[in-house]
Amino acid sequence: MKTNIIICLVIALSSQLYAQQGWTYQNSALTNNQYGAICAINKDTICVMADQGLFLKTMNGGTTWVSQTTGLPEAYFDLAFTSSETGYALGRNGLLIKTDDGGTTWFKSVSGTAKDLFSIFILSPGNIWVVGDSGVILHSVDMGETWLKITGLTTQRLNSVCFRDASIGYIAGNAGTLLKTVNGGINWEPVSLGTTKDLSSLTATNGNTFLLAGFVYGYGAGADEFYKTNDNVNWTSGFIGTPYLGPSKLFFQNDNLGFCITANCTTNGDCGIFIGKTTDSGQFWLTSYDNWNPPSMVGIAYADIDFVTDSIGYALSGNNILKTTDGGTFVGVKELNDPKSFTISPNPPLSGTLNITLHMTDLNGLSAEISDMNGKVFISMGNLKNFNQVDVSKFSCGVYLVKLLRNHNMIAVEKLLK
Fold it and tell me: Looking at residues 296-308, what average pLDDT do you find?
């Protein structure tokens, strides 16, 4: 059962808006990576499995990274560890590998399939689930020594598997496919969310299960909606807005604190990484990080994110590894608007016409957009002049963001009350 979250806001002018701070790039020497996965074992020990079987590890919180090859070149999509020593990685063409020495050596585990494998969840060291293309579901009860293939549930591509506790688990796939178990995977039943969107990136906390909904293509994904349930019966949906195609990965550290991440490139070659953050269980999403100038190539519609604590987290996109030690801190928007770049009037626009006045001489590369507090863009404007007018008469009541951008980077923002 699904219900929609509909929000009409009245917020005081003194409330804070936010921009990026708190994420730094790691010097990992990654090259030629598009996919891969990142796994935080503890606050100091972080592992990355990259394309062509390149394995990276830090044991000092990212100060130094050691890289080595697994000897099993392929594209990898997920990575998980049961302990500091035992870990699993999976990828294209049914490749499933295991390490028992913290990643120094890796060996193949016989998966019994040639289909691409996308997601792994370790319920306990001896109870592991894997899902992949064409309805593939694999289960091991002996630490990955052997795998049982579960058939007959679906032929759709399955993108993510996650358990909320020892009994309740979910598998999400394309075309609205959602499977649920209430007995630890002994039986799986379909769940209808009333959507045909591709479902991906499950994550669970003690009180909630979350997933992304949008589209999956190739090995990339983009979502425009997220779903959550706290009773495993009723699902609510909400909108996640990003400046790119939509988040490709979702992670919740606890019932309230969550992050989404995406990366993409424009047709003119500009590439960027976006991280969104919520502190209220997904009711509102704001920008934690937005950078159109990463030091290395990003993964196209592909990224991964993992947190150890509420403050310490890591992200991966392409050749870029990022770290935060302050939970991806938000910063007041006043820091973007100094000196003031533009003004809007009247506010609220009672006549339905909003004036946007630029207090700048250099208008090259400038554009503007108006979005709601969740990031959904309603109006985009290019070729700006010093004085611009826009019709907002059809906007619903609420609070909106008027953003000024130069070459896709936000340089100023104002709140619009309607």
Answer: 95
Task: Determine how β-strand 331-332 pairs with β-strand 18-19.
Answer: antiparallel
Buried b vs exposed e over 337-354: b needs ≥16 C-beta within 10 Å?
beeebbebeebebeeeeb
Q: Are residues 28 and 321 in contact, defined by beta-carbon separation less than 8 angstroms?
A: yes
**More confident site: 244 or 10:** 244
Could you tell me if 15 and 373 are in contact, meaning their C-beta atoms sit under 8 angstroms apart?
A: no
Whether 327 contacts 313, CB under 8 Å: yes
Average pLDDT, the chain: 89
DSSP state, residue 298: P
Q: Between the CA of residue 330 and those of 208, 277, 315, 324, 410, what are the distances in Å? A: 24, 9, 17, 12, 15
pTM: 0.78
- Please provide the size of the chain in residues: 418
* Contact (Cβ atoms closer than 8 angstroms) between residue 19 and residue 375: no
Alpha-carbon distances, residue 25 vs 76, 296, 324 (angstroms): 22, 10, 9
